[in-house]
């Protein structure tokens, strides 16, 4: 067979495979659309029976579900925001429209037939940009805020074991769980601080179990390594009334690390979703950041005329059954109730799964990646995913512009060549916004193995970055 014939055969096979994937995906996701509506009804009934309260969801009334958290949703310049009361000060926070607007023909037909029309959602989207906030709203917020503390630590579908609810003690409610290693305040040796921020459905163990032991003794004696469990993940607080917005995540990091550890200047290392938080922190503290290291950043430049959150959601979760990681991402992103079911089966029963894994492996394999995957609630994962990755899509350009123009620190971006979830083009797009950024593509590595499996090499690379930035 000649070379031209071979190319033609490969092209036909690829086209056929793409067609099969498209047809199969359409059928599978039509079924999932219907299943999510059925689960919606089932959960409403079970929630009412178990918790004696009809819990709202984003299928029918986004305003209702957000107000139930103690916050009021408004519209400003065509974008959805929530009003939050901090002491006696009102604040507007972005909330992603992808929480309540995920276009699907079958889902819309099912909702209109089974649950009534979505007229309230459409009205919300067309609300004018003028917002009047009066004393009545403040009173409503204060009343809701006062009732938040009476909410249960865990819902019936969430795990209530000691590990997952350890944050509920009074001393832990207002701060994140932090793992730190290195010189403390009593040491006379010169030290520098490094803040590590993990990605989606992960925890500080992603760093402490891989990188921390891999640093040289010189680095361990010079740098104070600080890794956090983000709000809603690991051993950090998982408040039922939180919407896990960008400002809530940043506030908790400031309170738990920058203020608590008296951090004046620091290096930042962030992975995946954590890169968005890292950029927000860098922009807020431009003179304090000494170096910025981003791993697999979720940056997709939004074309003019596109809605940022919707565009990024379609890129990250395109409703396809192949590759499998894309299929998993699509289920997590598009289906509120299917993802809650998955969380119920996996996270609530994590002790059973941990025992099974230990039996299968003979307790010979370290399972920290599996362990951190279990430690979150559906409420935390659902809102963080939408409000951070998708809700921040419109902010990324301004963050990168600020890093380029206002910060002078070293910017380094690492990306695995085989990363299917967030393609390497994301990092190249970062460099197009920040020309001085160094992009390092690691061959034969994906979203996780970018760190896991090459932690010693990556530790050396980080030490070089920090040393260069400190000169």
Structural overview:
The chain has 471 residues and is an alpha/beta fold. Helix content is 47%, strand content 13%. The protein contains 18 helices and ten strands. The protein has helices at 3-51, 62-67, 105-115, 119-125, 135-148, 205-208, 217-222, 246-259, 273-284, 308-316, 324-334, 336-346, 350-361, 368-374, 378-390, 396-406, 425-433, 455-469, and strands at residues 72-76, 79-86, 89-94, 178-181, 192-197, 223-228, 266-271, 289-295, 410-416, 438-442. It has a seven-stranded mixed β-sheet, sandwiched between helices. The chain has a three-stranded antiparallel β-sheet with strand order 1-2-3. Helix 1 (3-51) packs parallel to helix 3 (105-115), helix 1 crosses helix 12 (336-346) and helix 9 packs across helix 16 (396-406). It is globular, with a radius of gyration of 23 Å. It starts with a helix and ends with a helix. The relative contact order is 0.12. Residues 114-150 have low confidence and may be disordered.
Strands in their spatial order, largest beta sheet: 4-6-5-7-8-9-10
Tell how many strands the DSSP assignment holds. Answer: 10
In the predicted model, the low-confidence regions spanning at least 5 consecutive residues are 114-150
Shape: globular
Main sheet record: 7 strands, mixed
What is the alpha-carbon Rg in Å? Answer: 23 Å
Task: Give the proportion of residues in helices.
Answer: 40-55%
Terminal Cα span: 60 Å
């Amino acid at each position: 067979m000649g070379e031209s014939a071979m190319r033609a055969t490969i092209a036909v096979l690829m086209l056929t495979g793409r067609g099969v994937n498209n047809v199969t995906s359409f059928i599978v996701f039509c079924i999932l659309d219907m299943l999510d509506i059925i689960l919606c009804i089932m959960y409403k009934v079970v929630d009412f029976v178990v918790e004696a309260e009809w819990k709202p969801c984003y299928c029918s009334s986004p305003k209702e579900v957000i107000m139930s958290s103690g916050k009021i949703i408004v519209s400003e310049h065509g974008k959805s925001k929530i009003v939050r009361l901090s002491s006696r000060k009102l604040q507007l926070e972005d909330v992603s429209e992808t929480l309540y607007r995920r276009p699907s023909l079958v889902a819309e037909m099912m909702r209109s037939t089974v649950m009534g029309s979505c007229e309230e959602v459409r009205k919300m989207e067309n609300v004018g940009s003028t917002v009047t906030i009066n004393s009545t709203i403040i009173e409503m917020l204060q009343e809701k805020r006062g009732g938040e503390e009476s909410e249960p630590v865990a819902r019936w579908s969430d795990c209530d074991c000691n590990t997952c609810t350890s944050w509920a003690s009074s001393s832990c409610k207002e701060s994140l769980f932090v793992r730190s290693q290195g010189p403390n305040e009593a040491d006379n040796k010169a030290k520098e601080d490094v803040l590590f921020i993990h990605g989606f459905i992960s925890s500080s163990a992603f760093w402490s179990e891989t990188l921390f032991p891999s640093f040289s003794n010189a680095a361990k004696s010079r740098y104070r390594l600080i890794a956090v469990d983000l709000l809603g993940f690991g051993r950090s607080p998982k408040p039922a009334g939180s919407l896990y917005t960008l400002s809530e995540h940043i506030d908790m990091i400031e309170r738990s690390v920058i203020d608590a550890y008296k951090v004046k200047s620091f290096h930042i290392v962030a992975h995946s979703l954590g890169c968005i938080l890292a950029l927000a922190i860098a922009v807020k503290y431009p003179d304090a950041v000494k170096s910025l290291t981003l791993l697999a950043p979720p940056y997709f430049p939004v074309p003019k005329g596109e809605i940022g959150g919707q565009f990024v959601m379609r890129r990250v979760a395109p409703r396809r059954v192949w590759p499998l990681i894309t299929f998993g991402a699509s289920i997590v992103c598009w289906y509120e109730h299917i993802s809650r079911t998955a969380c119920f089966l996996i996270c609530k029963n994590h002790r059973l799964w941990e025992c099974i894994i230990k039996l299968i492996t003979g307790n010979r394999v370290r399972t920290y990646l599996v362990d951190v995957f279990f430690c979150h609630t559906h409420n935390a994962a659902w809102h963080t995913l939408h409000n951070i990755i998708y809700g921040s899509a419109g902010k990324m350009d301004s963050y990168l512009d600020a890093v380029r123009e206002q910060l002078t620190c070293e910017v380094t971006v690492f990306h695995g060549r085989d990363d299917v979830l967030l393609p390497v083009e994301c990092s190249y797009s970062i460099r197009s916004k920040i020309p001085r950024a160094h992009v390092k593509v690691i061959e034969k590595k994906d979203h996780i193995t970018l760190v896991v499996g090459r932690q010693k090499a990556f530790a050396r690379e980080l030490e070089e970055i920090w040393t260069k930035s400190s000169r």
